[in-house]
Design a protein that fits this description.
The protein is mostly helical. Helix content is about 50%, strand content about 5%. It has a two-stranded antiparallel sheet.
Length: about 150
């Protein structure tokens, strides 16, 4: 099986990890500091990720001493494809995907945009039916243990 060399941003990677962290702790509010420590990532960067997840309605943000973050919906309703589309800038896969800034001289006769566009859609189509619930179903206890109880 051949793989498309797609690379997601750290922003999206951290978003998916945050959602997985919350999915194995249903109904529990968690601080961004605790999540960042569990993964060994920058708390400052994770705060930006959490804001984006909140803006897209994937998590609830609670301020104050009893604050934290929690999933805004059931993990079975959160599609990996939806998260990827919302947070990752895959429009920039190649220059010609952004007509307003495209300076490529071969765009009018090049088939690369169509080929890569089709591959990108196949990538998302594969991820669309996969939910957080499915990702954590078989390894909920182990994931929780690996990220701290």
């Amino acid at each position: 099986m051949a793989f498309l060399p797609v690379r997601i941003t750290k922003h999206t990677d951290y978003a998916l990890r945050t959602l997985l962290y919350l999915a194995v702790r249903p109904g529990q509010r968690c601080s961004t500091q605790v999540i960042a420590e569990a993964y060994g990532i920058s708390s400052h960067h994770l705060q930006k990720v959490v804001r984006a997840l909140g803006q897209h309605g994937l998590i609830h943000l609670h301020r104050g001493s009893q604050g934290g973050v929690e999933l805004a919906m059931d993990p079975a309703e959160i599609s990996v494809g939806k998260v990827m589309r919302a947070l990752d800038d895959q429009e920039g896969l190649v220059e010609c995907f952004k007509p307003e800034s495209n300076l490529c001289v071969i765009t009018p006769s090049c088939g690369l945009k169509e080929a890569l566009g089709g591959a990108q859609e196949a990538f998302y189509a594969h991820l669309d039916p996969i939910t957080l619930s499915e990702l954590v179903k078989r390894s909920r206890k182990q994931l929780r243990k690996l990220t701290g109880n």
